[in-house]
Structure formats: structure tokens, C-alpha cells
């Protein structure tokens, strides 16, 4: 998508040195556009864990490229690559895209007989994953567009108000985003819309990243405190909710950024459609019950007790509590399928139910 009218994606190989991965370091947004050079799998691990790169499809791509970095200058050593895969997989637990992409790249490495072949296979696989994720988001955008268009028609072309949570935008993916792809496509077609952007405490991905993306693309939007959504829904100021997902179980339960569940409850109570946009790489085909089985990341309590912002031109962190009380930082929650109106996938829209999900992805049917 556009940054200062120039097209960017979130991660790529350095132009004159394909042995270096470059990525937008999202910790500096929206204040500064910083591009980071990542040269080793250890550096990739830190970039994922410390959220220089974040968002489910992007951490999958980053993990795959981390495996590619592991093949650079290496002699053949089967154990080393398996260890690197476990290491990278452990950087963040909730988004299933990470394990999916890292393990696919590991298999490609194992298929190579020589160090050169392993390196070539790893890069090809990582780039395939990246291409597929870009295309998945584009397809999600086209399918989701039909929903926004219908809403717009039902309102006689009056502004469609969409609420989103966290950042399921292009910064969380390769390009377009999941939840935001339909929004960008509708906006580009001239459909009048406005986005309510949940700030998304504690890390403020909504206020810092989604708002920045939308502003760069010229999409009308308003940042709101996380607690505002319910009120706006009661006041009929929200026509639909679209969020992303970090892991969806095959029963349709959806894990996404903490606070998503409360938005789903409020949407359900107010009969507002609640859609989840996700590529199939975010579906965990092994999990039959998301509420019981999806691992929920807990992060450092400092993210709750401190707040980051710009002061005199520098990003600083300030205490917002006495520091004497404990804090708990659950990073994700699970929205049960009964609260989800539909899943927007690259193959189309379906109910958040096993039969419908498998109807779109019949090759995943067991047996
Ligand atoms: O902790 P983050 O910033 O990686 O969490 C991101 C989200 O929860 C997004 O909604 C998600 O990855 C959706 S996929 C685009």
C-alpha cells in the first residue's frame, strides 16, 4: 500500500544483497518510517518476539525468511534446521501462520541435498508463501467488498460505518491486509465509508498502525478508546465489524487481539454483522475447539504499566501506574463461533462452522 505515495510492502529482500531481509520496523510507527536489516535467524526471532514485525500473516512470512537466513553460509546439518524451526516457532505462540510457514520452509530445506540446494529451496518456499499471502489478502478484499457494497446499497449510498480492532491491515500482512482489504477496495471504488479504529491497548496497534495506514490511503476514519464500540453500536453508528484472526479452529472459534470478544458480544447484542477476515493459513486444521485449545500469549506486564508516545521528537515510555500493583497482559482472546456472522476467506465467505469451512477447503477434510 501507499506510504507518502510510494508503494511499500512489509517485508522483502534487500535490493543489492538478497542475503539480507528488510522489514518495516513497526515499533517506530506512526512517528517514523524505519526500515530494519535482518541478517540472522536470531535477529528474526527478536524482530518477531519484540514486535518489530507483527500480525499473523506477516509473522508467518518473517518466520519463513528466518529459516532462509538460517541456510546462509551453513553446512548440511539436519538437526540444526529442525532446532531453528522450533526456535523461530517459539517466538510467538498464538498466530498459527508462524508454525505453518516455518514448517513448510523446513520441509523445503530438508528436500535439498546440498547447502546450496537447501538455501535455494528455502528462499523459493518463503517467496511462495509471501506471494500466496499477498494474493490471499487481495481475494479476501474482493469477497469482503461484496458485503460493503450491499450495505452501501441498503443505505442508499450513505456512508457505511465499519469498526475494526487492532491492526489487521497491510502492516500485519504483506499487502492489502485482511480486515482492511475490503475497506481499501470499497474506498477505491468510491463507496462512501468511515472506519472506527479501536485504539487497542496495550500496544495501541489501532491508534498507531491502523490509523496511520488509513490516513496514508485517504480512508476516512476516527480513533476511539477501546471501550467506545458498545456505545457506538447502541447509537446505530456502526454498520458492521470486520476484524482479523491469528488462529481459527475448524469449529469456527476465532482468536484475535485481546478485546475482540467484547466487540463481538456488543455486536451480537445490537444485531450488527461481525465478520472475521482471514487467510486459510490462519486456520488451525488440527484444532476442533478454539475456546479450549488455542494458546493465548501472555506478554510482559510493562506493556500494561507503561505507555509509549512522542515527546520532543523522540519516542519515550512513561509509567502510567505506580508500579506497585501487579498487571496481567493477555494478548489475545477467543470469540466463540456463535458470535461470528461470517468468515471472509480467500475462497469466499462462509459461516463460522466446520461444515462450511471444509466446504470451502474440501482438501482439508480428514480421510
Ligand atoms: O499482537 P499483534 O499485533 O501481532 O496482533 C495482531 C492481531 O491481533 C491482528 O488482528 C491479526 O494478526 C490479524 S491478521 C491480519
Note the main attributes of this structure.
single chain; 367 residues; seven-stranded mixed beta sheet; 40% helix; binds 5-S-methyl-1-O-phosphono-5-thio-D-ribulose
Short account of what is shown:
The protein is α/β, with parallel strands linked by helices.
Structure description:
- The chain is of the alpha/beta class and 367 residues long.
- Helices cover 40% and strands 20% of the residues.
- It has twelve helices and 18 strands.
- The strands form five sheets. It has a seven-stranded mixed beta sheet with strand order 8-7-6-9-12-17-18, with helices on both faces. A four-stranded mixed beta sheet has the order 13-10-11-16. Strands 3-4-5 form a three-stranded antiparallel beta sheet.
- A hairpin with a 2-residue loop joins strand 1 and strand 2.
- Helix 2 packs antiparallel against helix 3.
- It starts with a strand and ends in a 7-residue tail after the last helix.
- The relative contact order is 0.12.
- 5-S-methyl-1-O-phosphono-5-thio-D-ribulose (MRU) binds next to helix 2 and strand 11.
- The site of 5-S-methyl-1-O-phosphono-5-thio-D-ribulose has 17 residues, from helix 2 and strand 11.
- The total count of strands amounts to 18
What are the segments in which pLDDT stays under 50 over at least 5 consecutive residues?
A: none
Structural class, by secondary structure, is alpha/beta
Topology pattern, helix = H, strand = E: EEEEEHHHHHEHEHEHEEEHEEHHEEEEEH
| Radius of gyration, whole Å | 20 Å
Largest sheet data: 7 strands, mixed
| Proportion of strand residues | 15-25%
What hetero molecules are bound to the protein chains?
5-S-methyl-1-O-phosphono-5-thio-D-ribulose
| Main sheet strand line-up | 8-7-6-9-12-17-18
Q: Given the C-alpha coordinates, what overall shape results?
A: globular
How confident overall, as mean pLDDT? 97
User: What is the CA-CA span between the terminal residues?
Assistant: 41 Å
**Helix percentage range:** 25-40%
Helix tally equals: 12
